[in-house]
Fold these 2 entries.
Entry 1:
Amino acid sequence: MAHTVRLMPRQLAAIRRRLLAWYRANRRALPWRKGRDPYRIWLAEIMLQQTRIAAVIPYYERFLRRFPTVESLARARASEVLKHWAGLGYYSRARNLHRAAREIVRHHDGKFPKALDAALALPGIGRYTAAAILSIAFDAPLAALDGNVARVLARLFAFRVDPSDVKQKHKLAEASQQLLPSYSPGDWNQAMMELGETVCTPRAPHCEVCPLANLCRAKALNLAEKIPSPRRKPASVPMRIAAAILLDPQGRILLTKFPGRHDAVLFSRMWQFPATEVADGLNPASTLARNLRATLGIASNHFAALPPASHAVTFHKLTLLPYLVRVERIPHLPGCRTLPLSKLSDLAVSSATRKIAHGALKFVPR
Ligand code: SF4
């Protein structure tokens, strides 16, 4: 159980002063830290959800070159936005970002709303993201509590908490708001996150270089590595997915977007090869053949197994089983596209689809 933080004003002032001074001297020069444009900050916060900084940077820069303003994003077609997101994963982030851009243009005169309620009403923006954007862009006095900040707080005050527990998270939120200085709240939030990412790391924290070392209770009690308590990881669920690379005599393949059982979970409603889950004990080629007949009306006896590939999506551990399926003619069907395999990157496709296509390229004549 967490406790309310009781700090002497002197301790509180020392924590704030040291952390802000450390941050200003050590902060990394990240592309979203140039200026205080809320659009750029918002985009970074969304891309950084579930994704490492190093992976985000090239996507962030490319996305901004194509959509430099909230208006340009709002004007774009959804498929174009998804295409520029392809590879980053968690595609609902891109769809929400796009919807929110349209709402900002329609209801907020193209300006990111400054009020917390209005920011929270936008698709894809939760309490943490709103606090981060509003504090950094507009100096709003809102503490941003993400996993990194929760860990720093838990250690700083030696809270024996599991930050993934909702009730305990509430206590940490109170502590983070209590620490937030009324001046520079945006720098403060970034300083806490930066400390958690670079110094107070989940394993083997670098207490020897930490600006808060002699104010930290976990360090004094030799508990830094024991806090927070380890999280129970959900077991990953294995799943076999058979996918068909339908190939006609002109060397064209078919991609589909029609709603199916795995659509949202595995492929996020992006362009994909026709695919189906293969239950334990069933033959993948026969399962796929049945699925192709039932969903696309395609019958073929020419199934050639291609090398399998592994792929992880949230808690699913997928084995992708691609088959080259030769057909005389690819039918014109709603929600489907026909194109040469080498042109697949022209469309917004998921990483799993790209993995299948990459493996298939050497087996398909160009
Ligand atoms: Fe984290 Fe160690 Fe700094 Fe405490 S002293 S905040 S445990 S890095």
Entry 2:
Amino acid sequence: MSMKLISILGSTGSIGKSSLSVINLHPDRFKIFALGGFNNVDLLLEQAIKFKPSYIVTKDLPSKKLLIDKLKDEKLKTKVLFGEEGYSFIASHEDVTTVIAAITGSAGLISTVEAAKSGKQILLANKESMVMAGDLLNKICLENNATLIPIDSEHNAIFQVLSSQKDSQEIKKIILTASGGPFREFDIESLKNVTVDQALNHPNWKMGKKISIDSATMMNKGLEVIEASHLFRLNISKIEVVMHPQSIIHSFVEFIDGSSLSQLGNPDMRVPISYALGYPDRITSGVDGVSLDKLPNLEFFKPDLKKFRCLDLSYQCLAMGAAHCINLNASNEVAVEAFLLGKINFMQIPELIEKTLLKAEAADVNSVEHILEIDNLARLEANNILNKLF
Ligand code: MG
């Protein structure tokens, strides 16, 4: 067993914190090389004192300066970088074996690509990079011997099932489970009036704002369908979604012989994170297993695509191709932000996305620059529509 040297992109977010708590249990296996955060300087300082990384990356220059002052007081020798160049530096540094890609949204794309170009083992939580650049990332990984291990709980479950099973011809379909979020039982009319706080209040998982809203609209599941198609190289017809409000079964794989396999676990991200970190070994995560005799009834039913338009739009975009998936992701980020700021109501999130998608054009996408160009145009379009119509 060789020591893994780890860079975490997004160490102050929910996935980053859970990752550090698992890493902290295994000092014989893991060493933190670098931490990339946003501008939560106090938390970065706390993490620096505990894990003594060689580098920390902050969002911008002011937060870098602030952190340097605080590090001096603690007599720590950690070097501080900032911005996109900093994130890319710690994602591609030659000493690093493993990169945890946990920056939220499209902001995580470039550093994830840099990790892939540098042949790293990438533990992927940033589903948006797979949605925006799935084909390209797969190609770069193949060319540079990089590997992707999903942290996203559904994909991690499928990865666990498939790790002893490589022939995709034997897979009939995969079924992603979805809790349905806080509004599973709301009707369309009442969804127009839900508040930001209600939308942020996920029944099973504690997560960041972006993914919490995505879970409430079920865009999260839509992005996960697209993510799964790239990670497991499966045709759209082989990827289904089932509602499962208890979040105990984290997905299924159905094989051609009629067998279905799944992974169960309490809804705590330390479980999939520890599998990804330890892979191919299993290591302790600090989370108890599922007590079968104490489980609530496990329910499963079909999602309502009229209510959860974002899931429907995601399937449509996956069928239309890469450029539409980029447009979907970009317009969703604009719409989520607008909702969080109180500019649009909850049901206007899919409306804004759908209107933006009407302007999307199919294209062959084969470089990061091209992806960012499409992303940028989609954001401009979404903002135009937002300002005109809402
Ligand atoms: Mg998930």
